[in-house]
Amino acid sequence: MLRITGLSAFPITPSDADGRVEADALRRLLEPLAAAGVDSIGLLGSTGTYAYLSRDERRRAVEIAADTVSGRAPLLVGIGALRTDEAIRLARDARAAGAAAGLLAPVSYTPLTDAEVVTHFEAVAGEGGLPLVIYDNPATTHFRFSPALIGRIARLPGVIAAKCPAPAPDAAATGVAALRSAGPADFPIGFSGDWNAAEALIAGGAAWFSVAAGLFPQACLAIVRAAEAGDADRARALDAALEPLWALFKAHSSLRVVYALAGILGLCRAEPPRPIRPLPPAVEAEIAGTLLGLSLS
């Protein structure tokens, strides 16, 4: 069975003003991730702006990624949608296009109950034909999973891992333990929120779902491998070296910062989908200056 552990790198999805995925730019972003040996690639996550793309373009992005990666890393693909039937269709599309697993967030407009979210996961897992990763992202979905709910959904057939917001460093040990104890003993609990991820890994998190790794896979892999080896001091030191990047993420949002970085690095000049706008030139200059002071090879 597929296990989502280690480093999962989440790139942006470059698209034009009409929302059409730019294939060459996406390939330029994906190739270094596969070459670096990341453990999985998180396509069409929140950083991949899945909610802003049509069904056809989402499937096209998976097809481009599957062809580019060519089996070197499993593709974890965002399939979140407001409607359950649409999420099922997206899961089927992703599987047909080459995805290994689906990342399912309970996207909502009307606030959802726990029972409704369980039913949603049951239906998509049962009918979508794709292993699922629970995606807890309350900042965008306005739904927060309790450890008990994570544990309940983790026991559904076809649900293989969870992606949760990393606790604050001083709460990492208790937060990670609460999530791990709620589900099956071997159920992988991974974490997002790059600036808190190192402590979550040290506390026993199984995976880091990383925005920064979508551009800097080697630097992020080094943190993950140190944590996996039990070298907490090295993991913390490597993480501390990236603090200027985490500060930019917190100040300007990781999404906007990585769009700017993709241009600064010469990978693509895509803009985020409207109504999100690029960062002002002065902030881009700050980001470029920060980049010069970091060791990100």
Please write out the topology:
Blueprint: E1 6-9, H1 23-36, E2 40-43, H2 55-69, E3 75-78, H3 84-97, E4 101-104, H4 114-127, E5 132-135, H5 138-141, H6 147-154, E6 159-165, H7 172-182, E7 189-192, H8 194-202, E8 207-210, H9 217-228, H10 232-241, H11 243-252, H12 254-264, H13 281-292
Parallel strand pairs: 1-2, 1-8, 2-3, 3-4, 4-5, 5-6, 6-7, 7-8
Pick out the low-confidence regions.
none
Task: Give the proportion of residues in helices.
Answer: 40-55%
Number of helices: 13
CATH level 1 name: Alpha Beta
Strands ordered across the widest β-sheet: 1-2-3-4-5-6-7-8
Q: What's the rounded overall pLDDT mean?
A: 97
As a whole number of angstroms, the C-alpha radius of gyration is 18 Å
CATH topology: TIM Barrel
Distance between the termini: 32 Å
- How would you describe the oligomerization state of the chains in this entry? single chain
Strand count, sense and barrel status of the largest sheet are: 8 strands, parallel, barrel
| Overall SS class | alpha/beta
Number of strands: 8
Can you give a write-up of this model?
With 297 residues, the protein is α/β, with parallel strands linked by helices. Helix content is 48%, strand content 12%. It has one domain: Aldolase class I (TIM Barrel), CATH 3.20.20. Strands 1-2-3-4-5-6-7-8 form an 8-stranded parallel β-barrel, surrounded by 8 helices. It is globular, with a radius of gyration of 18 Å. The protein starts with 5 loop residues before the first strand and ends in a 5-residue tail after the last helix. The relative contact order is 0.13.
